[in-house]
UniProtKB/TrEMBL annotation:
The chain crosses the membrane at residues 40-58, 65-91, 111-132, 144-165. The keyword Cell membrane applies. Keywords: Cell membrane, Cell shape, Membrane, Transmembrane, Transmembrane helix. This is Rod shape-determining protein MreD. Belongs to the MreD family. It is found in: Cell membrane. It is a multi-pass membrane protein. It holds the Pfam family MreD. The keyword Membrane applies. InterPro entries: Cell_shape_determining_MreD. It comes from the Bacteria. The lineage of its organism: Bacteria, Bacillati, Bacillota, Bacilli, Lactobacillales.
């Protein structure tokens, strides 16, 4: 008889993989992703959280707590500025959860919700960094050179991974 791996364990392992892939992809493809004046930031960590909102049980997986924990680790490991993503990640997860519950579950609904989530994430990150003096770009430069390319990259990554991750969650739901 095969032993089933609990979905919570798969979620945690997937979250760690997504976290390290964020940095690895950014490092390996830095010449492409961060080519002046554009910036494309992969947010696989947030995508994994949002896909868990879509397919998993948010209360069983404690997504709000995980979002805060991974936001704290993200701040410490990638930005060095504590407090930006520790608040933004849970907010984005909560926002995506509320909006997704209002829509019929489908790929297009997920695409729209993720679009809104990434928009909020990147915009609040920019506002927080501008507030502390870390971002010097104007709003129009931010929209064109950071938000649009980041949205494009992350929506392509969502389109590629949506159905395989849905199948993963569905296979452990039985």
């Amino acid at each position: 008889m095969k032993r089933r791996i609990p979905i919570a364990m798969i979620f945690v392992i997937g979250q760690l993989i997504a976290f390290f892939l964020d940095g690895s992809i950014s490092q390996i493809l830095s010449g492409i992703l961060f080519k002046y004046p554009n910036t494309m930031v992969p947010y696989l960590t947030v995508m994994w959280l949002v896909l868990a909102v879509f397919f998993g049980n948010a209360k069983k997986l404690h997504l709000g707590i995980w979002a805060a924990v991974i936001g704290f680790v993200f701040d410490m490991y990638y930005t060095g500025i504590l407090g930006v993503y520790v608040f933004i990640f849970p907010l984005v997860v909560y926002l995506c959860q509320v909006i997704y519950q209002m829509l019929p579950p489908s790929f297009m609904s997920g695409f729209l919700v993720y679009f809104l989530g990434i928009t909020v994430l990147v915009t609040l990150g920019f506002v927080a960094n501008a507030f502390i003096g870390q971002a010097q770009a104007s709003v129009s430069e931010f929209l064109v050179n950071t938000l649009a390319p980041t949205l494009a990259l992350n929506l392509v990554l969502l389109a590629i991974s949506y159905f395989p991750i849905e199948a993963l969650y569905r296979s452990h739901r039985r």
